[in-house]
């Protein structure tokens, strides 16, 4: 099994064996006709004053949180850890899941499941990836005009989940 995941490798391998062989298609070709979904993993990282870390990508005009799209057969948490290592040059221990948010298709981008994990507190981080111009720490109000509205809504939910200890499910940033 070559899946990239964030869990214990031995337990994962044992779970794969316990799961048994893949199910056969009840109708030949049905699996290849199913829609594919994009998936992303990101982290809510704060500084010691509670401001949220945003990456400033060189390739788009809006800010984003550290993280990114999953690779083939990679879990959302593993993708977040990989992207944080690439973007910030640090290995973080991500905390619990805060939000799962489904976003609809938009132009060339497929619909996507966005996972936001607690990235903890990290002061004075610097951009490590050439795809990034810099990092900034902002309050959500300060960030609002510089991020997509759905990301703002998702991050409001992530902060609420962090405070309550209860993860949230959203669609396009709105809890449902």
UniProtKB/TrEMBL annotation:
Taken from the record, one Pfam family name reads: NUDIX
Query: Key word Magnesium present in the record?
Result: yes
Entry cofactors:
Mg(2+)
The alphabetical list of record keywords is: Hydrolase, Magnesium
Give every Nudix hydrolase domain span.
7-160
Gene3D superfamilies noted in UniProt: Nucleoside Triphosphate Pyrophosphohydrolase
Query: Which InterPro entries does the UniProt record give?
Result: NUDIX_hydrolase-like_dom_sf (IPR015797), NUDIX_hydrolase_CS (IPR020084), NUDIX_hydrolase_dom (IPR000086)
Any one Gene Ontology MF annotation carried by this entry is: hydrolase activity
**UniProt name for this protein:** Nudix hydrolase domain-containing protein
